[in-house]
Amino acid sequence: MSTTATDTPKQKSHDKSATHALTDGFHLIIDALKLNGINTIYGVPGIPITDFGRLAQAEGMRVISFRHEQHAGNAAAIAGYLTQKPGICLTVSAPGFLNGLTALANATTNCFPMILISGSSEREIVDLQQGDYEEMDQLAVSRPHCKAAFRVLHAQDIGIGVARAIRAACSGRPGGVYLDLPAKLFGQVMDAEAGRRSLVKVVDPAPRQLPAPDAVARALDVLRGARRPLIILGKGAAYARADEDIRALVEKSGIPYLPMSMAKGLLPDDHPLSAGAARSLALKESDVVMMIGARLNWLLSHGRGKTWGTEPKKFIQIDIDPEEMDSNVGIAAPLVGDIASCVSALLDGMDGNWAAPPAEWTGAIREKVETNVAKMAPKLRNNNIPMDFHAALGALRTIVKERPDAILVNEGANTLDFARSIIDMYQPRKRLDVGTWGVMGIGMGFAVAAAIETGKPVLAVEGDSAFGFSGMEIETICRYNLPVCVVVFNNNGIYRGTDVNPSGGRDVATTVFVKDSRYDKMMEAFGGVGVYATTPDELTRAVNEAMDSGKPTLINAVIDENAGTESGRIGNLNPQSAVSKK
Ligand code: ADP
Ligand code: MG
């Protein structure tokens, strides 16, 4: 059932010499993507899409092959976030598709535009369940996990199928789309000119959605009545690329703001109105909270409970999805529209004599920020051997400050929680992390796409456990010679490396790894640079060298195996048995 180049006609859509030029499914899909400005594919080759990848490369597309579909999918997802164009992931049928589906579901949850294109087995056989090679009803399986799912059966429908997938991924709340392409479609032949005419260039894939004027006025009224207002910036705000207007809104209003993890750097973290280091105080004491592209989900304690204090609050929420309103608490002023339009409408509505919030409030936040920053400073400079998280991150913090255009990828438990609060960001969309699900395994996929899409150096700060989920992709990083520096925070295990088997049996505890593993040697195996670092100075030197040279590098940073805590800062989500058996 494999489809090879010999099954397909030699004529290409561009071949004008033949009287009856023909094209086929392969070329129509490639032409449809290119027509819509999509020039990169992340995937894993195999039946039935091996030749598709070859032909796409032959037609000038960048086709990046991974070792596992989940990482190709994560790369596509973050490419979508970074470019506002759907990232493309290409997989084989059934198992490859399922591997990619994890990333598609994660993209949908995070509102990243992405299209998972999978080859699939023949409908006639799949639907009669006659046991085809990699048989699976992929379209049905995909539906609950993505924003939209389409299947194309005829070559003349490829143009429309790709257009629908692009529009579904980008418009409104962005998300993941599944495009099912059965093996037979690729080899279907049609007249080249008719094929060309069947393609669709999507006009305005993410149309602006203007907020209603009365909703803008209502939001401004609520804001005017605030005594202790707070703005929360989410990754939707970072995605929207309304950077200058968002900064103007914060500065003109004089309202302190709190960036969610991936919104860090939308305004520099050392901005005088940043409440980042006074998060608890800001959430608890505020009386009016305006959310811009952030959701009141678990990451914000659902907008209630002791995190939010006892006084009733009023929420203003800017979001493109009307159903997001009232999802967790009542929203006093819903502002539905695209963030750029909403923020610019708010700016227009703030007249010249807009009063800044009371100095008592902004002063209290500032003071708390300064106290917390001062408290943290000596911890970041400690020289304990082995290093703790603070010492290692203190070193990386300085490097990111000196290289603000580098992209930081970050995952782990403690490695994530500490890095998020310790490493300041200075530019928008430079911090890529575990997102809405707090998922492990995004690391190397995100790092590859960040390097490919932006051409900037990438620093991936990884817990040793988190790294393991995608670690084999360092071969991909070396193969494409990408400017990625991976730092593995090696504390010998999940959360920490000191747990013991409670039964006293022969197996090690469930959360510990081989002691003193040398992840740096893995990188050397593929021709990259491996470094073993035990002090903040060694770490600093190695990262700077990697960033200057652009050579694929992995630094095994030895971290005290006692240093971590269970599940980092979300240990409360771990159910624990109340029954202890004697
Ligand atoms: P965070 O985790 O940073 O709080 P979320 O991913 O939870 O961010 O929330 C992002 C929100 O931004 C989603 O509710 C999404 O609908 C919204 N969003 C994404 N892009 C836009 C846009 N261009 N305009 C308006 N809202 C957007
Ligand atoms: Mg660990």
Can you describe what's shown?
The chain has three domains: 3-198, Thiamin diphosphate (ThDP)-binding fold, Pyr/PP domains (Rossmann fold), CATH 3.40.50.970; 213-366, TPP-binding domain (Rossmann fold); 381-558, Thiamin diphosphate (ThDP)-binding fold, Pyr/PP domains (Rossmann fold), CATH 3.40.50. The longest helix has 22 residues, at 359-380. The N and C termini lie far apart (59 Å). It contains 22 helices and 19 strands. Residues 1-13 have low confidence and may be disordered. The strands form four sheets. It has a six-stranded parallel beta sheet with strand order 3-2-4-5-7-6, with helices on both faces. With 582 residues, the chain is an alpha/beta fold. α7 links the parallel β6 (148-151) and β7. The chain binds adenosine-5'-diphosphate and magnesium ion.
Question: Topology of this protein?
Answer:
Elements: E1 22-24, H1 25-35, E2 40-43, H2 50-58, E3 62-65, H3 69-83, E4 87-91, H4 94-110, E5 114-120, H5 123-127, H6 138-142, E6 148-151, H7 158-170, E7 176-182, H8 183-187, E8 189-191, H9 192-198, H10 213-224, E9 229-233, H11 235-240, H12 243-253, E10 257-259, H13 279-285, E11 288-292, E12 314-319, E13 333-336, H14 339-349, H15 359-380, H16 389-402, E14 407-411, H17 414-422, E15 431-433, H18 443-454, E16 458-463, H19 464-470, H20 474-479, E17 484-490, H21 519-525, E18 529-533, H22 536-549, E19 553-558
Parallel strand pairs: 2-3, 2-4, 4-5, 5-7, 6-7, 9-10, 9-11, 11-12, 12-13, 14-15, 14-16, 16-17, 17-19, 18-19
Antiparallel strand pairs: 1-8
Helix pairs in contact: 1-7, 3-4, 3-18, 10-14, 12-14, 16-17, 16-22
